[in-house]
Design goal:
This protein is an all-alpha fold. The chain contains 6 helices and no strands.
């Protein structure tokens, strides 16, 4: 399955609703994408989104997609950074992603 361009566009939208819709779509379909490079770039950028719900969704996506992510070291760093987020829900999602993939004993 190809990564839909309209989802990529939504990840860059000024609308919180559209960015959240994009994250939900990515979370639900990440294992179906033929090429995860563009998805990865969008997730990487969204780790620094101004909205905590978006960052929380990215942490969830990183947990779900860790095995598919092309640059595991960078994914690890992004996830680690999210565990230090100022918002507790983002930190919890990032911590759960670690646990989900057995990265924390």
């Amino acid at each position: 399955m190809e990564y839909p361009f309209q989802i990529h566009e939504k990840t860059q939208s000024p609308s919180l609703k559209e960015r959240l819709e994009a994250i939900e779509y990515i979370n639900n379909n990440i294992h179906r994408f033929d090429d995860i490079k563009n998805v990865w770039e969008d997730l990487h950028r969204l780790t620094q989104d101004e909205d905590e719900e978006v960052r929380e969704g990215v942490a969830d996506a990183l947990g779900v997609a860790f095995a598919s992510i092309p640059d595991k070291d960078e994914a690890w760093e992004l996830l680690h950074r999210l565990t230090q987020d100022k918002k507790e829900n983002v930190r919890w999602s990032a911590a759960f992603a670690y646990i989900l993939w057995g990265l924390v004993e």
